[in-house]
Design brief:
Distance between the termini: 18 Å
Shape: globular
Largest sheet: 7 strands, mixed
Strand order of the largest sheet: 1-2-4-3-5-15-6
CATH class of the largest domain: Alpha Beta
Strand content: 15-25%
Number of helices: 12
Order of helices and strands: HHHEHHEEHEHEEEEEHEEEHEHEHEH
Structural class: alpha/beta
Number of domains: 2
CATH topology of the largest domain: Aminopeptidase
Helix content: 25-40%
C-alpha cells in the first residue's frame, strides 16, 4: 500500500480515540499558563508512545513569559486537578508554578529536523451549554466555570496526539528528527516567545502548524497549505495612579485616575494611522473608582494594538504608551504600562506551501486544497515567533488552515466544530512529516 494512504488509514482508525481526547480537553479547559491537566495528559501520552518528553522550564524560558497568573491563582487551580481525572504523576512542580506546555521529540537517525506546533489553551468564556446550542457537543460541555475551548485548541491537541501516534507507528520509515510542540498561552500572544527563546527552533529545517477555520469562507477546500500577513500585536495593561479626595468637600486635593484613563481611551482612537499599512487599536476594558463621592485614585485599562507589519505595530505601541503617560500627566496622575502579550507578523515560505499543496493533490486526493492556497490571515498569532526563528537560519515554515463546519463563530459561547476534521488534520500532518523525513 502507498505510505500516504497507509497514513490516512491509520488516522481514520484513530477517530474515536481522537474524539475522546478532544472531548476530555473540552470538558476541562484551561487558560494560558494554567494548562496543568492538559500538559500532564499530553506528557503521559507522548511518554507511552516512546517520545523524549520535555516539560516545565525545559519548554519556555522563564524571563520571556508574559501575562503569568499569580502564584495564588495557580495554586488554586492545581488543587482542582485530582478531581478532574488528571494523571498527577505527570504534573511536575514546574507545571504547578505555571510552566506549562510539552515538547515531544522522536529521533529517527540522521536527517532533517521537522517541527509541528499545536496550541493547547482555552479562553476565559462561559460556554452556552443549552440544548439548542449543542449540535456537536452533547454531553461534554465545559465543567470549568468561566473557561471554554471556544477557538478549537482542543481539536489541535487531539490532532497533535493522533499525529504522534501515527508517526510512532511508521518511525522505521523516517530519517531525521520530529519535534511536536504543544504550546501554552497562545491566546493573548504569550507563550510562543518563550519557546523560541529556549532555542527549540534553532535546528529546525521545516516547521508547520495549522488552525481550524470555518468552511464557508474564501478557503474553499479542506486544507489551505499556507497563510501570510497576520497582524503583529501588543497587549497592554495600563495602571493609572492618582490621589483620592472627597468629591464634594475638597475635589481640588485629588488627582482623578479614572479621568486620566478616560482621556487616554478617547485619545488612543485618534492615533494617526501609518502610511505603510493597516493598524488597529482597541480599549477592551476600563475600570476604576470606589464610590460616587470619591475622586478615583486608581484605574485600570486593557488595550491592544496591531499592525500589518512588526514595524507598524511598534509604531502603534509607542504612540499608545505615550498617550497613556500624557493623559496621566494632564491630570496629575502617573501611568504604568506593561506589555503582557505580543506577536510579530508571519509569512509562510511559498516553496514549502507549494510542496504541501503538491503532496496533498498527489497523495491525498480525498482532501481538496483551497483555490487560494496561500491565503491572507488578518488575525494575530504568536506563532510568528516560532516561524521567524526557523526562517532566520534558513529553515522553511508554514501556517496552514484546516477547514471544518462550525455552528457558531470562534470566540463565541456557542462555538463547536465537526470532529471529522480531526482525521483530516492527523493525516495531513503525518503526511507532511513523511514527505520530509521519509522520502529520499
Amino acid at each position: 500500500m502507498d505510505m500516504y494512504q497507509n497514513i490516512n488509514q491509520l488516522a481514520r482508525s484513530l477517530h474515536q480515540e481522537s474524539v475522546d481526547i478532544r472531548r476530555t480537553m473540552h470538558m476541562y479547559p484551561e487558560t494560558g499558563w494554567f494548562e496543568m491537566r492538559t500538559s500532564a495528559i499530553i506528557a503521559k501520552r507522548l511518554t507511552e508512545l516512546g517520545y523524549e518528553v520535555l516539560t516545565g522550564r525545559q519548554v519556555c524560558r522563564e524571563d520571556t513569559r508574559m501575562g503569568v497568573p499569580s502564584p495564588e491563582e495557580l495554586e488554586a487551580h492545581y488543587q482542582q486537578l485530582p478531581e478532574q481525572g488528571t494523571p498527577m504523576e505527570y504534573v511536575t512542580e514546574d507545571m504547578r508554578e505555571g510552566f506549562t506546555g510539552v515538547i515531544g521529540i522522536l529521533r529517527c537517525g540522521d536527517g532533517p529536523v521537522a517541527a509541528l506546533r499545536f496550541d493547547i489553551d482555552a479562553l476565559p468564556m462561559t460556554e452556552n451549554a443549552t440544548q439548542d446550542h449543542r449540535p456537536f457537543r452533547e454531553g461534554f460541555a465545559s465543567r470549568n466555570p468561566g473557561c471554554m475551548h471556544a477557538c478549537g485548541h482542543d481539536s489541535h491537541i487531539a490532532m497533535g496526539l493522533g499525529t504522534a501516534r501515527v508517526l510512532s507507528e511508521i518511525r522505521e520509515h523516517l530519517h531525521g528528527t520530529v519535534k511536536l510542540v504543544f504550546q501554552p498561552a497562545e491566546e493573548g500572544a504569550r507563550g510562543a516567545k518563550g519557546i523560541a527563546a529556549s532555542g527549540h527552533m534553532d535546528d529546525v529545517d521545516f516547521f508547520a502548524a495549522t488552525h481550524i477555520a470555518p468552511d464557508d469562507t474564501i478557503d474553499d477546500g479542506d486544507i489551505t497549505p499556507g497563510t501570510y500577513g497576520s497582524l503583529a500585536t501588543a497587549k497592554l495593561d495600563v495602571e493609572f495612579h492618582g490621589k483620592a479626595a472627597h468629591a464634594g468637600g475638597f475635589p481640588e486635593k485629588g488627582c482623578d485616575a479614572l479621568q486620566a484613563a478616560a482621556h487616554a481611551a478617547i485619545a488612543l482612537a485618534g492615533i494617526p494611522r501609518h502610511s505603510g499599512g493597516m493598524s488597529r487599536v482597541n480599549v477592551g476594558t476600563l475600570r476604576g473608582g470606589s464610590g460616587r463621592n470619591v475622586v478615583p485614585d486608581y484605574a485600570f485599562m486593557q488595550v491592544e494594538v496591531r499592525g500589518e507589519t512588526t514595524e507598524i505595530n511598534q509604531y502603534m505601541t509607542e504612540r499608545a504608551c505615550a498617550i497613556c503617560e500624557a493623559a496621566a500627566a494632564m491630570t496629575g496622575c502617573t501611568a504604568s504600562v506593561s506589555i503582557v502579550g505580543e506577536a510579530p507578523s508571519q509569512v509562510s515560505d511559498l516553496a514549502f506551501v507549494e510542496r504541501i499543496r503538491d503532496m496533498i493533490q498527489t497523495h491525498l486526493p480525498q482532501y481538496r486544497v483551497s483555490t487560494e492556497y496561500n491565503s491572507r490571515n488578518w488575525g494575530s498569532e504568536d506563532i510568528g515567533f516560532l516561524m521567524n526563528r526557523v526562517q532566520a537560519h534558513g529553515g522553511q515554515a508554514v501556517y496552514m488552515r484546516t477547514m471544518t463546519s462550525m455552528p457558531s463563530a470562534q470566540h463565541t459561547t456557542e462555538f463547536d466544530l465537526d470532529e471529522k476534521a480531526l482525521d483530516k488534520g492527523i493525516s495531513v500532518f503525518a503526511s507532511i512529516i513523511y514527505n520530509i523525513l521519509g522520502e529520499s
